[in-house]
Amino acid sequence: MDDLLRVHDPGLILGIVVSSALTLVSCCPLLLLPQYTDDLPFKVPLMPLLPLIALLAAVILLLHFNSLVYVGVVVWLCLGLIVYFTYGMKHSVEATRQDVHLNDQ
Fold first, then answer.
1. What is each CA distance from 43 to 30, 31, 36, 87, in whole angstroms?
2. Most CB atoms closer than 10 Å: which of 13, 23, 36, 48?
3. Keywords in UniProt for this one (predicted)?
């Protein structure tokens, strides 16, 4: 267990802590959304505890990756976002509505 928690780069720890904090802060607006009182077909078991344990496990795993892995993740993330947004802009319903509206005038 000691080897699992041993970290080689303090900058990496800082990056993971900052990204985890930003993730938690960005999830705060979700608490303002209306809560459903209906019986839903699926609920997360142990709701507050299980996601926190999963987050902690992911952070511990991230501490042991090589810096080249993080570069690869960022590159693939950027490529995925480019594909996602270019496809979304070309195939969105709102863009189609605007094109039809501009052609009518």
1. 16, 16, 11, 32
2. 13
3. Membrane, Transmembrane, Transmembrane helix
Backbone angles phi, psi at 40, to 5 degrees: -90, 155
Separation between Cα atoms, residue 52 and residue 46, nearest integer Å: 10
Distance of CA 1 to the CA centre of its chain: 28
Q: How far is it, in rounded angstroms, from Cα 105 to Cα 99?
A: 10
With contact defined as beta carbons under 8 Å apart, do 27 and 83 qualify?
no
Residues 6 or more apart whose CB falls under 8 angstroms from that of 64 comprise: 4, 7
Written as six digits, the tokens of 12 are 């990496």
Number of residues written out for the chain: 105
Q: Which conformational region is residue 81 in: left (phi greater than 0), alpha (psi within -120 to 50 degrees), or beta?
A: alpha
CA distance 71 to 10: 17
Q: What is the C-alpha separation between 41 and 51, in angstroms, rounded?
A: 19
**pTM for the whole thing?**
0.43
